[in-house]
Amino acid sequence: MYANEKIERISREELTALQIERLKKTVSYVYEKSSFYRRSFDKVGIKPENISTLADIQKLPFLTLEEIKRTNVFDFLTLPLSGVLRITHFEDFEDECTKFYTRDDIRQNVEMTVRCLIAAGINKTSTVGLQGDLSDGKFLDILYALESIGAAVIPLGMDYRKWLRLMEDFQMDILIGTPQLIMQLIIQLQAIGKNIIDYSIKKILCVNVNNIQNPLQQHIGIRTGTQVFNLFAPSEIGTAGMIYQCRSNSGHHVQEDNYFAEIVEFNGDKVIEEPERMGELVITTLTAQAFPLIRYRTGQAVRRMSEPCECDRTFFRIATPYTGLSMEDFDED
Known about the structure:
32% of the residues lie in helices and 21% in strands.
């Protein structure tokens, strides 16, 4: 099943034309509206008119997480605060990140998240337990996407005592949360003499904030007896909808109508063109308004998969070093 079959099965020719159109528009937009990108482009002598093909993106400088951290967030912002609909601030022991969203940013993020959820088999008959802090915009997007599908949503929050009570009161067949929160639930159930495998959960979606695929989910799948899907959701990306897994569970589809993805050599700048060769995932947002990212180095090791997917989606797929591994591969660790 598809959320938007026309887009998810778009031809490569149509997709390339769409990406070129959106890339040129984005580069012109950020050069005009963002002081950071104007300085960055001027430093390498690039103007928006120098970008006319997808290959021309390689003329633009990379963006790193370190640059985002040391740059005033308002230097990235492309419009006055009066045009911003949502501001989220994430902070942990090491990092903090502020993200701005326009109305269209939120709409686009929710639409992409709907694709992720439907690809995992969630529909209007599903009852979904959603772990997490709803002050985080990524979890809000997931909530809105679930509601737009018509699924029954139970926001579980962050308190394990609430989780245990609601697990008893409602028959959830889907669980969404970070791997750490899901494992905490498993452990808390075990502490009161219960086993999560005895509940009605059939699928789990892991919201991974650091890596596309978390080795912990291998353990989660075994402990719960369920199929586990990934939602890659780092704070600097600002959404959980950039990539997704279909029910074939072979690699991750990149939402290419909204992101232009490159794979580059580790610690280098050469773009890897051939499939099946591992490199670093670099993404450029094609539709983001408030806080676009141009050639952002994600730090994620991926390879482009060459074979078509069984689901017939035409967005290209990436695989991580963990794709296809079993628990035996991690025993020595």
